[in-house]
Amino acid sequence: MRTAIYLIIGFVISLGALAYAFYLYRKVLSFDQGDDKIKEISSYIKEGAAAFLRSEYKVIYTFIVITTILIFFGFYFGYDTLSGLTSNSNTNIIVEQTEYSALFYGLGTSLSFLLGSIFSLSAGFIGMKSATNANSRTTTAARDSGIVKALDVAFKGGSVMGMGVVGFGLLGLFIVVSLSLAIGVDAYEAITYAAGYSLGASSIALFGRVGGGIYTKAADVAADLVGKIENSIPEDDPRNPAVIADNVGDNVGDVAGMGSDLLESYVSSIIGAATMAALIFTADHRMNGILFVLAIAFSGVLASIVGTMFVRGKEGKSPFKSLKNGTYASAGLFIALSLLINFLFLDTFGSALYYDQNDVFMNIRNFAFGLAPFVSIIIGLAVGVLIGLVSEYYTSADYKHVKNIAKQSQTGHATNIIAGMATGMESSLIPVLILAAGIIGSFLVGGLFGVGLAAVGMLSTAGITISVDAYGPIADNAGGIAEMSGQDKSVRAITDKLDSVGNTTAAIEKGFAIGSAAMTAIALFSAFIRKAGLSAIDVAQPRVMAGLIIGAMLAFFFSSLVIKSVGKAANKMIDEVRRQYKEMPGILEYTEKPDYAQCVTIATNAALKEMMLPALLAIITPLAIGFIFGSEVLGGMLAGTLVTGIMLAIFMANAGGAWDNAKKLIETGEFGGKGSEAHKAAVTGDTVGDPFKDTAGPSIDILIKLMTTISLVFAAAFGLGLF
Amino acid sequence: MRTAIYLIIGFVISLGALAYAFYLYRKVLSFDQGDDKIKEISSYIKEGAAAFLRSEYKVIYTFIVITTILIFFGFYFGYDTLSGLTSNSNTNIIVEQTEYSALFYGLGTSLSFLLGSIFSLSAGFIGMKSATNANSRTTTAARDSGIVKALDVAFKGGSVMGMGVVGFGLLGLFIVVSLSLAIGVDAYEAITYAAGYSLGASSIALFGRVGGGIYTKAADVAADLVGKIENSIPEDDPRNPAVIADNVGDNVGDVAGMGSDLLESYVSSIIGAATMAALIFTADHRMNGILFVLAIAFSGVLASIVGTMFVRGKEGKSPFKSLKNGTYASAGLFIALSLLINFLFLDTFGSALYYDQNDVFMNIRNFAFGLAPFVSIIIGLAVGVLIGLVSEYYTSADYKHVKNIAKQSQTGHATNIIAGMATGMESSLIPVLILAAGIIGSFLVGGLFGVGLAAVGMLSTAGITISVDAYGPIADNAGGIAEMSGQDKSVRAITDKLDSVGNTTAAIEKGFAIGSAAMTAIALFSAFIRKAGLSAIDVAQPRVMAGLIIGAMLAFFFSSLVIKSVGKAANKMIDEVRRQYKEMPGILEYTEKPDYAQCVTIATNAALKEMMLPALLAIITPLAIGFIFGSEVLGGMLAGTLVTGIMLAIFMANAGGAWDNAKKLIETGEFGGKGSEAHKAAVTGDTVGDPFKDTAGPSIDILIKLMTTISLVFAAAFGLGLF
Asked: Using a CB-CB distance cutoff of 8 angstroms, which residues of chain A are in contact with residue B408?
């Protein structure tokens, strides 16, 4: 009964989020699109983005179909091995799965995977659709009604993505869990299928982040190098053949890629905590534990929906404050709701024999209080917020680090680079201490389940977080459209103001994305260990230590692949832009129109080609290591990629952000201003930082989660390996 | 009886190495020093280097005295806790230490520490003394007798260091072990004291590498920036006030720093394996296990001595080949000797109940063959050689990566940096796979003892390796002296040829230093775990995972500190050089002589000041984490620093080396040649790479080893921690 009520409420709320997204989308479309010039430019971006997604989705469809079939047959034929191994394992699950046929097992996992892929694609698609419609309308609003209206349009455009991500993410989970229960599967099995759902979302996120990241930076570099530097035309000038591709890039990378990334974190964190619940609660309380996690998730969605309504611009009020109001409102409501839900589940936590083989005493003691889950959730929420703030500290021109990089630019390119690198490396200190405190704290309070809940807490208000993030590229695009359509300077001033807020929120988001990826991966990692039937991942064993080192290396090697990919794709773009200037000399005199579409096509093809190798590396390595060396060595490898990956992600995101803002600081006239030698050095730093912060860094977040999710799905199959 | 024989042979051989070093030193002094001009310049370098060491040693003496006292009282008063904890641990040592008084325990460890510090200082001191005498004599030999004689002088100068390091390193170990046995301590206790010896060597190595590394790069950057770039005077020009400091830097960083680094690796690897032997052999075979490790070590010293005699230049033969001959001869002889020694110890390995609680079966099976130790040693030797070769591949202009960086320099500073970074990151792939294969291989063959022996095998021929390395900066200095003393171009041509070989050997050495640090740290890590009485370091425990993440962060944070220190020290130097040019305008017209000494003083003070924070971080963190969170969390932290540190060290060493050689490749006329835009971009890369490859990278090697050694020494004291 309780199960039914919660599942129904969950369904209603996730459908509600989608309905709200649809309402917002209609609302965005109802705003005035602007004059013909704006419409024309906007249509180029819209078509370019749609063209990229079409091509990308074609590649992804092939991948999905093949993988779905492979998963089906893998689980179907591996069924005996899987169930045999699981029943021998030292988890406290007495393998009910032997009651079900191999067919069920294969179908359940592969169909969940399929659903996860499709929902992730859908969320990315509607987010981008909304963003490419909102951009021109933001320009028009800025022109006709001023900043308050422009903020409203841009934020509504972003909220479609935010609501779409949490709506689709949660709906899919409820479908998988409900269907599983409907066909008579028990709670543990249902969560196993849900891991397949998470794997689908992870795979799409990887392609989206890597492909989108390569696209956006290749276009950016080419537009800057050939347009701004070689031909001295300003940013976003319509005479730049790569300018449309550059604006498309913002949408495919920062909107669609970011959305599928956070959808993945969101879903994975829920599944990580739910798997923990399934593994550590005894059979009669298992379903309640899972329901609790789901209830926390949907209260976060509800809080996010309400939060978006608190974002209201006001003349003379900073847009940043308006956005923050929404975030605070969501957080406040979420805290109240989760406390309430904790009380509703007091019977489960208070009286249940809460099982954790390693620290039974601590759990009993803590759960006697009954509110440990709530406390763990709040710890996670706090960790997310704090890590985001530290990112802002290291990457904002208001603080000393960015100022120092700008100052060091005066002595040349090398000192700019060294200062940026040192800042990026240093910036790992505080976030890691916060993260470690969060892990230890949530563990002390709630055991492994507490760690899982902390990840859920951190991501609970993902709806509003994503809305604020997706607002950024819309404002950025709006500025580009204002420039290209030759609007008055006052229009550009408004969009610039909106855009600069977007840069700050982007820096915070990156810190948050890394923190949530780390926390989620740790929760998934714990779930993997239990499911693989391991009692420990002992790095004192030389084989496991070898795995740890290989895992650490993968983070570096993967980064090098992604960075090189950006370079290769950019080179193709550069050649094309140079060719156009050479063959169509009239472009610079406005007598000929550049072939935007050709640039878009080249960026699309290059990005899709280059994303394959890193993506396959991330997918194949855990399977290979798991089957060859067994699950403990694989666990070592995951831990290695996790810890080194977090450092690299923080380093790259913050170094890149700091270089970017140091350049912008100089452009405001400090340290010599635009055109000075210091500015040239700062441009070098910014260019180096671009693939760091927008391609490699975010891709590592997914690498960490995807590798862990794959391992979790196949956990029971690895066994001891061949060596 | 056997013990006595082996100890005596060991004494004789280590004293022999020192006598041989003394003979070589006298030989170097017997060569003609050259004309007055050469003598004058050489004396500046000699005095500058001596002045730095004097100041550095003053700081270090204070540190040693304080630490020795702290260690004494720590062990004296902590004695009850220590022995209590150890007797509760699950190692198979039945704590014989309770028979000895607390006084013994404190004295043994603190005096060993003192001896380790003093011997490390001595090795660095004689190495630098020899190098600063050999440099001018190499110049003179190049002028008077040609390349064959010059190579001979430079290599003999370097061999003093090589022989000094292994001689002092081994002698000290024999003293500690013999004295311990003489006072009636058992084998296990003796090795415990030896860990104190290793800690002394580690601490000095850290100061040497960090201090020397900051010195050399600060001087280098200042000399380049103000001299070469701002005032357009050539490299090594006597009108550059920083030129002497720059040449001094080669000696204090690349000779003294490198020597104490490898002495530390050398000693630690032996102690790691010996501790393993003490922990896993049963009491009646324990001493034999330790003796075997020592015998392998002294056979390596013997092989190195013989090897140096095979280095003979020949007209028309590449100096690189001559140096390689020596290395090959040493390796060949060492393999033969270690096989022989293995046969001599067959009784121990064949019949002893070889104890390893985790994999008894495997050990029995393997040790039935009796030659498993030999095979493990050879695996280690092979891993060292292979990792060195991969470093050469990634950093030599003969291969595609450096060529690509040079090519990317044509499109600007940013693409040069990105290409170098990507290359550095990519270059971790193969070394890590080799290392992982070596760890797994030696473990499969010989258990944990096998892993320890692999580290010993890798470092066994350290004598010849260090000789070859120390040759590099001597040849480099000889070139500088030739330039400054106005020798004929033909002299400079010879020294350049010798120097370019030095660059290749330096790249190989860096790879080797990282590989050996990693292998040694893993051996020490295993010893730490056993000694701390842990059965596992389970990263599946959230507390341990938090430790792992913090450890990974330390590697990044430490690097940022060191890189920033170089920047700060360089800025002070830059100010001084600019001041001299301003206040003494005659310098550039040769009418005034620059104040070399002032530059040397400033570099010295800046380096010493800046080395304190990173050094203290490395020393205090493991103690703090160990006492607060206990040994398992500390173990997680060590593993985190180990794996992330290895990656960062490889990345920094290879990116730096590749940038350096890309610049040199362009200077040969490729891609636009000297003075082109590509060259400017390549200079940027080289400058960024300098603190990477010569300061931060090598310092991380020591960070890894020192943190593990400290943890090993205090292993028994940490217990479960406060949280």
From this structure: 567
B108-120 pLDDT, tens digit per residue, is 889 999 999 999 9
Q: How far is CA A573 from CA A392, A568, A597, in A?
A: 32, 9, 12
Q: Among partner residues B442, B540, B549, which is closest to A529 by beta-carbon distance? A: B540
Backbone angles phi, psi at A292, to 5 degrees: -60, -45
The residues, ordered by sequence, that sit 6+ positions from A133 with a Cβ below 8 Å of its Cβ are A25, A28, A29, A46, A157
pLDDT digits (tens, 9 = 90+) for A31-69: 999 889 999 889 989 888 888 888 888 888 988 999 898
Tokens encoding A143: 């022109």
Nearest to B161 by CA among B50, B266, B51, B21: B21
Q: What is the pLDDT of residues B45-80, one digit of tens each?
A: 988 888 888 888 888 898 899 989 888 887 777 665
pTM of the model: 0.90
Give B275 to chain A, closest Cα distance, Å.
Answer: 15
Q: How high is the ipTM of this complex?
A: 0.90
Residues of A in contact with B358 (CB under 8 A): 541
Query: How open is the CA angle A97-A98-A103, to the nearest 5 degrees?
Result: 80
Residue A20: the pLDDT is 96
| Contact indicator for A260, A197 with CB cutoff of 8 Å | no
Give the rounded distance of the alpha carbon of B428 from its chain centre: 19
Q: Quick check: helix, strand or coil at residue A538?
A: strand
Q: Is any Cβ of chain B less than 8 angstroms from the Cβ of A361?
A: no
Q: Which residues of A touch B681 (CB under 8 A)?
A: 413
Q: Per-residue pLDDT tens for B130-148? A: 999 999 999 999 999 989 9
DSSP helix, strand, coil percent of chain A (3-state; round to 5): 85, 0, 15
* Contact assignment for A536 to B534 by CB distance below 8 Å: no
Least Cα distance to B295 among B460, B443, B178 occurs for B460
Interchain pair A422, B560: CB under 8 A: yes
CA B709 to CA A491: how far, in whole Å? Answer: 63
pLDDT class of B427 with cuts at 50, 70, 90: very high
B436 touching chain A per CB within 8 A: yes
Report which residue type is found at B209. Answer: R
CA distance B540 to chain A (A): 6
How far is the CA of B710 from the CAs of A403, A432, B238, in angstroms? 38, 23, 45
Q: What is the pLDDT of residue B258?
A: 85
Longest dimension (CA), chain B: 79
Whether residue A450 contacts residue A372, with contact meaning beta carbons closer than 8 Å, is answered with: yes
Q: Is B525 on the interface with A (CB under 8 A)?
A: yes
Contact B502/B251 with Cβ under 8 angstroms? no
Average pLDDT estimate for A343-355: 64
Residue A234: partners with Cβ closer than 8 Å, 6 or more residues away: A228, A483
Give one DSSP letter per residue of A77-124, joined into a string.
Answer: HTHHHHHHHHHHSSSS---GGGGS-HHHHHHHHHHHHHHHHHHHHHHH
CB–CB contact B418 A560 (8 Å): no
Contact A267, A201 (CB under 8 A): yes
Calculate the alpha carbon distances from A147 to A24, A134, A597 in Å. Answer: 19, 14, 32
Query: What is the rounded distance in angstroms from the CA atom of residue B575 to the CA atom of residue B331?
Result: 48
Q: Indicate the Cα dihedral angle B568, B574, B575, B577, nearest 10°.
A: 150
A324: which 2 tokens? 């923050």
Name B281's bridge partners. Answer: B354
Nearest to B557 among A425, A537, A640 (CB): A425
Residues 6+ positions from A546 with CB-CB distance below 8 Å: A633, A636, B435, B436, B437, B439, B440
Tokens at B592, concatenated: 């005034």
